[in-house]
Amino acid sequence: MARVGAFVSYLVDSDVTIDYLKAQPHTIELFRTLLTDDISISTVVVGEVYQGIYDGDDPVQAAKDFERLLSEFTVVPFDIDTAKTFGRIRGAALKLVPKPGDSDIMVAATAIPHDLILVTRNARHFGRIAGLKLFDWNTVPGNPSGT
Hints:
Blueprint: E1 10-12, H1 14-21, H2 25-35, E2 39-42, H3 43-54, H4 59-70, E3 74-76, H5 80-93, H6 102-111, E4 117-120, H7 123-126, E5 133-136
Parallel strand pairs: 1-2, 1-4, 2-3, 4-5
């Protein structure tokens, strides 16, 4: 079972989590060196990853792998503070073109009130969200998915 408790420095997005589960070497190295024990995951991301698991070729094994990874993370729930932040961001996003998706807003809303840095390869989805701290995994030298 995943740990629930004190919130830490980094929140991983679903893309980075999926890369780790696919054993992408640079992402594994990122988790080992940069983030060490300071990794958390949103319940929203957990849901996104499970969606992919249930749609995959071997959901039983994929779920076991993900649950093993979850045991190493702090799970950050979508709580009242997160919901308030979601409402603020979504209201402001109504003026944006293109608008961020609700899942992305929910992930950002999880990071902001807990003062977490969101680690993602999809910085363009989050770049215009006020108050969000981003770690753009694409900008890391040597990252094959980077620019």
